[in-house]
Design brief:
Length: 432
């Protein structure tokens, strides 16, 4: 099926612009509609109803390539789940370009609600997610009966399911503390790791990565030293050579970073060019741009902790192959089909698409997902799910799927059941 996305760039005047990924239309496109549901989907209790979801993420600027990949992924799975889901609903995805700005994101939220959209999703930037959580809370307090639900697919600041937890917010990725638990668990098995440098983006996510790295390493790897720590501006640095020089001067044999998008791609590019031979433990190696920057010279030197990788078995593996064939691009955000799966199951159980009724079912819901049995923990709305540690290596054998035409891939080296990385919560959730 050929389809067109409508990406809405929000400015002070809320000017609209459409972005097409098939053939550019002569006129602005209507919001992309999911494929018509066949008889199987129509059997659901809500057959004939359409659920609109607003995606509020960057589709321009340095982080634009990441947001555009995920926009395609959201539409790809809107089609998949519209064709077959237990509620029988059709999903319609509307993209808003927030330019990675909290202020622009609030404008986007207002534009979405003005269009009657009551489900929003976002993942790129915890600074954005924090602003959206506050705005959704205020909107729902002021507009009973017209509530909005925030489906957070990738903003991983732990505070969102702890001190800032909200009944209307549901997180589908593992948070920074959960990922760090698994990352350090793997790292403690490497006796060559002795001196670590913490390099992260200077916003809430980067602060949390550094914080939990120090706390968890002190508990699990007390002999490993932190020999340097630095924060840099988010999506502004174009040359990381000075940072690599500092890392080399510190004597660090390993870098731990939560960087993503251009901030990781340019970092590893500078490491390659600057002759840094140490290792990188990362959260987002698989994200657009970084594989190309790594190339083959970083083989065996880069690890990623995440909920999926390029060589997934079963249903996810089939989706990845189909996505690559359709877009000549990699599908690496496994939280996206989880959002649709959870939402459609909750709607089927609630027998309603009303956000308040759906949220009540989604809170605490256990369901079968592409990665096994998962649970949206009721106390804080943090999804509990397994993760994998992978390593950058040549593609082939059991792990043939190449990343960005590099002939390289991320191959799994350690699995973590959900309970291994599950962390406690301090959330004192206020329920309606």
């Amino acid at each position: 099926m050929n389809f067109t996305f409508k990406t809405i760039a929000i400015s002070a005047a809320l000017a609209c612009a459409s972005v097409a990924f098939a053939q550019a239309p002569a006129k602005p496109a209507a919001p992309a509609k999911a494929a018509a549901a066949p008889a199987k989907a129509a059997a659901g209790p809500l057959a004939g109803q359409t659920v609109k979801i607003a995606l509020i993420d960057p589709q321009s600027g340095l982080m634009g390539p990441v947001g555009l990949n995920q926009l395609k992924s959201f539409q790809f799975f809107a089609d998949k789940f519209s064709a077959n889901n237990p509620a029988g609903v059709k999903f319609e995805l509307v993209g808003f370009d927030n330019k990675l700005s909290p202020a622009e994101s609030l404008n986007a939220l207002k534009a979405a609600t003005d269009q009657g959209i009551r489900y929003i999703t976002q993942g790129n930037g915890s600074s954005v997610a924090g602003a959206l959580i506050d705005a959704v809370n205020k909107h729902n307090e002021r507009n009973p009966g017209k509530e909005i639900v925030f489906l957070n697919y990738a903003a991983v600041d732990p505070d969102f399911t702890n001190s800032k937890c909200s009944y209307w917010h549901f997180r589908f990725d593992a948070d920074s503390s959960m990922k760090m638990e698994a990352l350090v668990e793997n790292m403690k098995g490497d006796t060559n790791v002795k001196n670590v440098y913490l390099l992260n983006q200077n916003y809430s996510h980067g602060h949390q990565v550094a914080k939990f790295a120090k706390e968890i390493m002190a508990r699990k790897t007390p002999s490993v030293k932190v020999v340097g720590e630095e924060l840099h501006p988010l999506a502004q640095v174009r040359d990381f050579a000075p940072y690599i020089a500092k890392i080399k001067a510190s004597g660090a044999d390993t870098v731990i970073t939560g960087n993503w998008g251009s901030d990781l791609a340019l970092l590893v590019k500078a490491a390659n060019e600057g002759g840094y031979t140490g290792k990188f433990y990362t959260y987002y190696t698989g994200v657009t741009g970084t594989p190309t920057a790594l190339g083959s010279t970083m083989e065996g030197k880069v690890k990623q902790i995440a909920i999926m990788h390029y060589n997934m078995p079963g249903e996810m593996g089939k989706w990845q192959d189909e996505f690559k064939a359709k877009f000549q691009d990699d599908m690496y955000t496994g939280q996206i089909p989880t959002v649709y799966n959870a939402l459609s199951n909750a709607m089927a159980q609630a027998k309603s698409t009303e956000p308040a009724k759906v949220a009540a079912v989604l809170s605490g819901m256990k369901f079968k997902n592409w990665n096994g049995d998962v649970e949206m923990r009721k106390t804080d709305h943090q999804l509990q799910q397994p993760m994998q540690m992978t390593v950058w290596q040549k593609a082939g054998g059991k792990f043939p799927n190449v990343a960005e035409k590099t002939n390289m891939t991320l191959a799994p080296i350690q699995d973590f059941p959900a309970y291994i990385a599950s962390t406690p919560t301090s959330c004192q959730m206020k329920r309606p």
